[in-house]
């Protein structure tokens, strides 16, 4: 490749008619949502087998109905966190909640 060809090819690639470069369209990942992963993990820990399971679903954790769902969503997340800490260190969990 001669010097003249490389210069002209770089100029044609660098110039876009004075327009800014076009950015590629960024799409959302098609994987599971955070709420879906969280509820799947709760089920893998078999927390859904406990008698006081509050029926946590991805819809429960959804923020589409913020006002309507907020109190129930918070209660479910608190329950799940408590149960996970209880599994991690039951003695400390009991101690901290008394």
Detailed description of the structure:
There is one protein chain. The chain has helices spanning 3-14, 34-44, 66-88, 90-97. It is 55% helix and 0% strand. The model has no long low-confidence stretch (mean pLDDT 81). The protein has 4 helices and no strands.
Number of helices: 4
Order of helices and strands: HHHH
Mean residue pLDDT = 81
State which percent range the strand residues make up. Answer: under 5%
Structural class from helices and strands? mainly alpha
Rg, nearest Å = 26 Å
**Counted beta strands:** 0
Helix content: 55-70%
Query: Outline, from the CA principal axes?
Result: elongated
Question: Would you spell out the secondary-structure blueprint of this structure?
Answer:
Blueprint: H1 3-14, H2 34-44, H3 66-88, H4 90-97
Would you summarize the structure shown here?
The chain is mainly alpha-helical and 98 residues long.
Search tags:
single chain, 98 residues, mainly alpha, elongated
């Amino acid at each position: 490749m001669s010097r003249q060809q490389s210069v002209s090819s770089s100029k044609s690639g660098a110039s876009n008619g004075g327009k800014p470069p076009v950015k590629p369209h960024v799409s959302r990942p098609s994987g599971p949502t955070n709420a879906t992963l969280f509820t799947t993990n709760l089920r893998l820990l078999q927390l859904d087998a406990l008698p006081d399971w509050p029926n946590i679903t991805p819809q429960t954790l959804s923020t589409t109905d913020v006002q309507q769902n907020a109190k129930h969503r918070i209660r479910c997340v608190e329950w799940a966190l408590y149960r996970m800490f209880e599994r991690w260190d039951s003695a400390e969990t009991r101690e901290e909640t008394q």
